[in-house]
Specification:
The chain is α+β, with helices and mostly antiparallel strands and 280 residues long. The protein contains eight helices and 13 strands. It has two domains: 104 residues, D-amino Acid Aminotransferase, Chain A, domain 1 (2-Layer Sandwich); 160 residues, D-amino Acid Aminotransferase, subunit A, domain 2 (D-amino Acid Aminotransferase, Chain A, domain 2). The longest helix has 17 residues. It starts with 17 loop residues before the first helix and ends with a helix.
């Protein structure tokens, strides 16, 4: 917490921090395996890009953050886990104006993480298309990984009420944006497709890695809008994210996806596992 290692009960944040009051801040989620963080430089680069977009000055260098995260991973009581790196605007007056806030608060959480059911990798997950729409990219740049996840929380509540594992959000044009906390990939007519950021998708680190693996392995792919009808007509659907890794989708709105897990998903899953083993 701001450079000092402490226990959970000793980590405190002012109630006047604008991160608490308004969700004014940014964060990254980083997986670690064998006590080593995965794709950390990509995550730190995105953290600084998000902070710069919000004009939040992070009071640590890239090297200092990498050193702190590396040390925490090595000290963790479990070999595989999750790092949550958070930067808030800092303490300020009541009101939305960020002028006078600061300095930014920075804290790092080390935790175990189980985002999906244990059998999801083999059986897939159940999903719905949420009635909640993704906020337009013209209103809020989806490439900024901010602390405000209300849009996703509303969609997750829909999934909970319907007793399914996850929700997929569309944008105002009825094209796929992303899932609650994951990017969406489909396989349609033999091609791997994922939505562009302009459709409301986060520029996910795992998404970027999967696209690179597809290119290297000769899997045809495209970054293109996915209409709702195309999503429902897909041969394969799967989600990607730092927390979720790669998860196949078994059904959408009760409609079964023909291939779960599909051939392309299975190939990419093996390749992604290889990245984990190589880098950690």
């Amino acid at each position: 917490m701001n450079g000092n290692q402490c226990n959970q009960e000793d980590a405190t944040l002012s109630i006047f921090d604008h991160g608490v009051l308004y969700g004014d801040g940014v964060f990254e989620g980083i997986r670690f395996y064998h006590h080593k963080p995965l794709l950390m430089h990509d995550h730190i680069e995105r953290l600084f890009a998000s902070a710069n977009s919000l004009e939040i000055v992070i009071p640590y260098t890239t090297a200092e953050l990498i050193s702190a995260i590396t040390n925490l991973c090595e000290q963790a009581l479990f070999s595989h886990g999750y790092i949550r790196l958070v930067v808030t605007r800092g303490v300020g007056a009541i009101g939305l104006n960020p002028i006078g806030c600061g300095p930014a608060n920075v804290f790092i959480i080390v935790a175990e993480l189980n985002m999906m059911p244990a059998n999801a990798i083999h059986q897939g997950i159940t999903t719905i298309i949420a009635t909640t729409r993704r906020i337009s990219s013209s209103a809020l740049d989806p490439r900024i990984k901010s602390l405000n996840y209300l849009n996703s929380i509303l969609a997750k509540q829909e999934a909970n009420r319907t007793n399914v594992d996850e929700a997929i959000l569309l944008n105002d044009q009825n094209n796929v944006a992303e899932a609650v906390a994951e990017n969406v990939f489909i396989v349609h007519k033999g091609k791997l497709i994922t939505p562009p950021c302009d459709d409301g998708a986060l520029n996910g680190i795992t998404r970027k890695t999967i696209l690179a693996l597809a290119q290297e392995s000769g899997i045809p792919y495209d970054i293109a809008s996915i209409p709702e009808a195309t999503l429902l007509a897909s041969d394969e659907v799967f989600l990607t994210g730092t927390g979720a890794e790669l998860i196949p989708v078994r059904s959408i709105n009760g409609k079964l996806i023909p291939q779960c897990p599909g051939q392309i998903f299975s190939k990419l899953k093996v390749l992604y596992t290889g990245i984990i083993e190589q880098q950690t």
